[in-house]
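--- STAGE predict ---
source: upstream dedup step, 1 unique chain passed
mode: sequence only
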Amino acid sequence: MGKFINKLTVNLHEICARDKVHQHLFDLLRKQEGLKIRPIIILCIGSDRYTGDSLGPLIGSDLKENTEFTVYGCLDYPVHAGNLVETISVIKHRHHHPIIIAIDACLGKTSEIGNIEVWEGGLQAGIAVGNRLPCVGDISVIGVVNSGGHLGYLDLQSTPLSIVVKLSKVISFALRDAVPALAVESEKQVLSC
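--- STAGE serialize ---
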């Protein structure tokens, strides 16, 4: 697991789970080089065709409805294995040197269901179902929605919606708090100069 830098793992049932995710996202964003001039893009990966894979689109839809964030991937326009490469190209064409927060669902061990993991660096979507997709993200957020075996899509298909919704709420609220907090901090720094 050496590829994960500054990794946080928290279960959605832990006390202050949302606050821990928020603080870790905030800290990782603050460390990004050129933060003040680089656009923050939230890339929510997944599909609404499988319950377990709908984590990203649920978060994307919530953020589109309740924030001014630049979001790619929602229930109406999901970013999935079939269009991820094209979407990454569009993001890089439209936004100069963006900071990408990549979000995706993940399969893990039974004991890991409900875990949220946040780290500095990219994620590789589609591994659980055998897809080879490019690594994407400056910061990554995953939610472990179910235990994974050799079934791949069937594991995602048989995931209870309740766990996905609970994970999506914790992650959405953490993002809603972390990104604006950076703007407030930047304004305070400017005013104090």
